[in-house]
Amino acid sequence: MKQFSCGAVVPGCTATFEADDEHGILTQVAAHAREDHGMDAVPDEVVAQVRANISEAA
Ligand SMILES: [Zn+2]
């Protein structure tokens, strides 16, 4: 299980995500970025930041 806290990339955002793998996290983050942060697409540099901050969940 992987987990990611949006606040690691967007200060102040409290959204957190869990998925079986990195792809699952990125899919959820893309939807969240669009709906809650008004980002139509997630730039490569943001994807890189997200990947760097994904951690193992118990
Ligand atoms: Zn967020």
From TrEMBL:
Pfam families: DUF1059
InterPro entries assigned: DUF1059 (IPR009409)
Name used for this protein in its record: DUF1059 domain-containing protein
